[in-house]
Amino acid sequence: MSPQRSAAASGSTVSLTSPTTPHEGDRLTFHWTTDAPDAKNWIGIYDGTRQPGVGASLVWDYVTTAAGDLTLDAGGLAEGVYTAYLLAKDGYGILAQTPAFTVTARPVITRPHAVLDSFTTGAYASGDTVSVPLAPLWIRPQGNPAGTPSFRRLAGDSWLSVRQDGTVTGTAPRHPSAHPGRVTVAVKDSAGGSDTVTVQVPVRTAGAQPRLTVASLNLWDAGSHIDDGHEKRLRLILGRGLDVVAVQESGGSAAKTLADALGWHAYDSPAGVGLVSRFPLDHASTPVPGVPAVAATLRLPDNQTVRLWAAQLDEAAYGPYALRDGRTPAQVEAAEPKTLRYRQASALLAAMRADIASRTPVVLAAGLASPSHLDGRGRNAVRWPITVALDKAGLTDAYREAHPHAANDPGTTWSPVRPGEPQDRIDQLHFAGRLRVESAYTLCTGWPKAVPDTAGNGWPSDHAAPVVTFSLPSRHA
Questions:
Q1: For residue 5, what pLDDT band results from cuts at 50, 70 and 90?
Q2: DSSP three-state, residue 337
Q3: Which is more confidently placed, 185 or 285?
Q4: Which residues contact 382 (CB under 8 A, 6 or more apart)?
Q5: Measured on CA atoms in the order 398, 376, 341, 237, is the torsion positive or negative?
Q6: Would you state the pLDDT for residue 378?
Q7: What region does 68 belong to: left with phi over 0, alpha with psi -120 to 50, or beta?
Q8: Do residues 356 and 393 touch, judged by C-beta distance below 8 A?
Q9: Cα distances (angstroms) measured from residue 397 to each of 404, 429, 446, 471
Q10: Do 403 and 442 meet the contact criterion of CB atoms below 8 Å apart?
Q11: Which of 262, 268, 340, 450 allows an S-S link to 314, with CB 3.0 to 4.6 Å?
């Protein structure tokens, strides 16, 4: 659904009242008024310039009266700029919105602590067994004495409980409510740390259309340029509600390390490309000779499957450098097919051919080291051969499907920390088959400092990350 401004907007207000200068982990209180009250009006928070209808809100709740105050558990919000919207009747009609507000990084914590104070799991179907491990999300900073965390349930829905080892368990109810299930857990570490964690567990109604949020994330030399990179990556994945992350420059092991902490599934490769998935992975591909790429089948609810490919192509002879140095578009187009990158792309598409031709939906999440032919403008536009080849093979550029006008939505991923580089969209998600793009955006949290002052950045990469939410036709439809 596209964002729409309600005619009632002039009679509605919403404002952030506390705290006025929020930090990561704070609970946020909003005051609203409206001359169009409804039992399904709601307030939701969106990051950056995203508006309602472009991806899911990061945190939300219903507001049923003409005026009042609402406190949202916004502990999952990383540093960055956000806007809260007062929205009409369970939809995306905007009644009012706050001015953009900034969440700043929380002070450095040296005691043991939880990765996030609050996060939302993936959606479960009625009758599913819930199992969410919290112990791997307990962080012991380097140099801190080793300790043992203990977990205690403080409050929440009766169908959710907490085991001694910190695992949240339960059986998803047959008749789910509009709100996710919720449980708050106290954690105390024998080394002196203590914290609370609120876990929200959504339950899908029968026949609901399955959704899948996929990101492609370059880990930048296995995270070696960012302090506490593992914790920051966990915070990113949980706080943004990602279901699958295709990683590049993983060092051959980072995908499994992340999955072990999340209680998820992983597929790593010595080539430095891997998959981290909330959903089970099977039928992993054999290596594609000469191409850093992996593939596996995601096992989604209702016995649905998606074939997921991840890849990273060679960066040598980068085309935008040639343009910057005075080569013409025609010269660049002629040179690109002679690169190792183009040969890798051809081998990758040959390996994907059977999957693209099948009835199973396919997603390719890749660092292409090439801009897109769909992003060019005017007489100097380049028909970049790699994305032309992906298009001819039957793959659709998910970001351009959602944002067809490159001038308005460039979607730049390279590079948020290298301002002197040509700014291009070289990290992309492509798809084929029965998938619908619900939303697509480029993610980079906070205000990362430029190279070489990147160690303290909250954003754990030198690339921004493309993120796409797909919907699949329900088997009950």
A1: very low
A2: helix
A3: 185
A4: 319, 323, 329, 332, 333, 371, 373, 376
A5: negative
A6: 66
A7: left
A8: yes
A9: 10, 6, 26, 15
A10: no
A11: 340
- Cβ atoms of residues 426 and 397 within 8 Å: no
H-helix or E-strand spanning residue 344: helix 340-357
* Strand, coil or helix: 260: helix
Question: pLDDT band at residue 206, thresholds of 50, 70 and 90?
Answer: confident
pLDDT at 331 over 90: yes
For residue 450, count CB atoms less than 10 angstroms from its CB and return exposed for 0-12, middle for 13-18, buried for 19 or more: middle
Q: Which two tokens stand for residue 248?
A: 């590049």
Phi-psi region of 392 (alpha: psi -120 to 50; beta: other; left: phi over 0): alpha
Region 65-75: what's the mean pLDDT? 90
Mean of the per-residue pLDDT values of the chain: 91
Residue 121 in this model has a pLDDT that exceeds 50: yes
Would you give the distance in Å from CA 229 to the centre of its chain? 16
Half-sphere exposure of 215 (CA within 13 A, CB side): 25
The predicted structure's pLDDT at residue 4: 39
Q: Cα torsion for 251, 227, 103, 212, to the nearest 10°?
A: 10
Q: In angstroms, rounded to a whole number, what is the distance separating the alpha carbons of residues 186 and 359? A: 46
Instruction: Choose among 388, 393, 246: nearest CA to 310.
Output: 246
Tokens of 466: 């493309």
Coil/strand/helix, residue 142:
coil
Cβ 88 vs Cβ 74: under 8 Å: no
How confident is the model at residue 257, as a pLDDT? 95
Q: Which of 6-15, 28-37, 347-356, 376-385 has the lowest mean pLDDT?
A: 6-15
Q: How far is CA 193 from the centre of its chain?
A: 29
What global pTM score does this model have?
0.84
Nearest residue to 28 (alpha-carbon basis) of 41, 17, 37: 17
Residue with tokens 């043992």: 148
Question: For residue 398, what are the CA distances in angstroms to 191, 206, 241, 356, 374?
Answer: 47, 28, 18, 15, 11
Predicted local distance difference test score (pLDDT) of residue 3: 39
Query: How crowded is the C-beta side of 162, counted as CA atoms within 13 Å?
Result: 23
Name which of 201, 217, 363 is nearest 276 in CA terms.
Answer: 217
Three-class SS of residue 143? coil
Q: Give me the pLDDT at residue 115, please.
A: 92
- The set of residues, in sequence order, having a beta carbon less than 8 Å from that of 334 and lying 6+ positions away, is none
- Two tokens, residue 295: 């593939």
Instruction: Give Cα separations from 90 to 1, 125, 374 (angstroms).
Output: 12, 21, 35
